[in-house]
Amino acid sequence: MFKAKLESAKEFKKVVDTMATLLDEICLQVNEEGVRAAAMDPSHVALLSLNIPRIAFEDYQADEHEIGIELEAFKKIMNRAKAKDKLILELDEERNRLNVIFENQGKRKFSLSLLDLSGATTKVPELEYHNVITIKGDALKEALKDADLISDHVIMRASPYEFKIEAKGDLNDFTAEFSSEDDAIISIEGEEEVKSAFNLEYLLDMVKGVSKGDIVKLYLGNDMPLKMEYSLAGCELMFLLAPRIEE
Amino acid sequence: KSKQVKLSDFFKV
C-alpha cells in the first residue's frame, strides 16, 4: 500500500511544475522511508533527483512500490490546487492508478493512470566538488533572468570569496557579482578559482520552483556538471546539469 | 564557440 498526506498541495505543485519542465515522466520509488525518484531529461543534459523523507508528510504509510507517472497530466491536476488544500497521494493497486486527492472543505479526487516505468530508474552519480556556493534563491533566479536578456548561456565563476554569473552577447554583456560579504550569500567555500559554462534555458527550468526565502546550494568545478540543491516544503531536489565546453 | 555536452561524458548512465 501507499498513502501519503502533505500539508500543502500548493507547495507540492511547485515540485511537480519543476519536474515537468525537465522531464516527461518519472518513476517514484516509495518505501517506508519516504519517496525517491531520479531521471534524466530526454537529451541527457540534465538529471533531476527528488527525495521526500517520510518526516515531510503529515501522514505516511508505504510498502515498496514503483509508481510511474506521466508528468504533464500530473502537473495539470496539481494546477488545480487551492491555497488551503491538503494533498493525499494514494496508490490504487487494483486499478493501477494514483489517486490525487485535494482535501479541504470536501475531497476532490483525480485518478491518474500509471505508466510501467519499472527498470527505468536512474542512478545518481557521486561527483567530487571543491567549490560550494550557498545563495538566496531569489538573487540567483533574478541574475539568471538578467543574463537571459543577453545570451542563451552563462559562465559561472567561483573563487574563495566571490561568485559571478556572466553572459556575453554579440553587442552587450551582463555580469552578476556576489561576494561573501553580500546579503545574497550565505557562504562561499572553495580554495581555487573555477569556471564552467551552462545553458540558460536549463538553468531557468531548474530554478522554476524557487521563491523568496529558499536557499540554493551550487557545486561548481572546471568544465564540470553543475550540481544544484534546494528544498521546497521538505521535498529535497537535486539537479545535475552538463556544461557547455569550448570547442 | 562552445558546445553542449551530455552527462554521460562525465559518468556512466
From TrEMBL, chain A:
For this UniProt record, the keywords arranged alphabetically read as follows:
DNA replication, DNA-binding
**Which segments constitute the Proliferating cell nuclear antigen PCNA C-terminal domain?**
123-243
Task: Spell out the InterPro entries in the cross-references.
Answer: DNA_clamp_sf (IPR046938), Pr_cel_nuc_antig (IPR000730), Pr_cel_nuc_antig_C (IPR022649), Pr_cel_nuc_antig_CS (IPR022659), Pr_cel_nuc_antig_N (IPR022648)
* Pfam families in the record: PCNA_C, PCNA_N
PROSITE patterns (UniProt xref):
PCNA_1
Domain Proliferating cell nuclear antigen PCNA N-terminal, first and last residues per copy: 1-111
Does the keyword section mention Disulfide bond? no
Gene Ontology MF, one: DNA polymerase processivity factor activity
Alphabetically, which GO biological process terms does the record hold? leading strand elongation; regulation of DNA replication
Known role: Sliding clamp subunit that acts as a moving platform for DNA processing. Responsible for tethering the catalytic subunit of DNA polymerase and other proteins to DNA during high-speed replication.
Q: How does it assemble?
A: Homotrimer. The subunits circularize to form a toroid; DNA passes through its center. Replication factor C (RFC) is required to load the toroid on the DNA.
The record's comment on protein family reads: Belongs to the PCNA family.
Q: What is this protein called?
A: DNA polymerase sliding clamp
